[in-house]
Amino acid sequence: MGFPQSGLVAMAIVIVVVVTVLRLVSWYRSRCPRLRLLTGSRPQQQAILLAVRPVVRNLLPTLEASGVEVSVIALLPTLTGGSGEPLQAQVEQVNESRLFSIRLAHWVGGTLRRPEEVAGALAEELLGLYLDAAAVTVVRQTPATVSTTMLVTAEKMAARKDGRPAVATLSRAAARDEAEGTVVAFRPNPLGTSPNGHAG
Q: pTM of the entire structure?
């Protein structure tokens, strides 16, 4: 006694759906670079993942649109160049194709790099690949410096009525360093709203 015809049709539909889903998953995995963390403790790896994911999510689609594919992004303990010099990142091209792999160093010159530094190095390499692939020419660059006028204005704004500073003022060197990449945490608004106007 065989299956009714409707049962065979339903089984065929299920098989087709399963095969299609498996192919889509396989295609998606092949399109997304494998992030391999080959060093660091579990908390360090989790922090690096959180820092790197937005970079991958925001830059890879643009890079892929230019015809470049990144197959692997690997975090290694250290990287060295041909002369033994320490490297922060290394990009390899597969057989002169448009397929690349990126290696990132966790330690550079004996210093452990913070997650945001690793993410920044990855962003630099992805942007570099895009500039090369899309033949983009940089026509203007603005250095990250803080003018004397801005520092004097900031100090005046920070001063209270009694003449004492309301917040600690920065030296010019510290302000320049801060402008070059340090993230500043803003104090919460006393009204309970965030800087963008939404309730906190």
A: 0.56
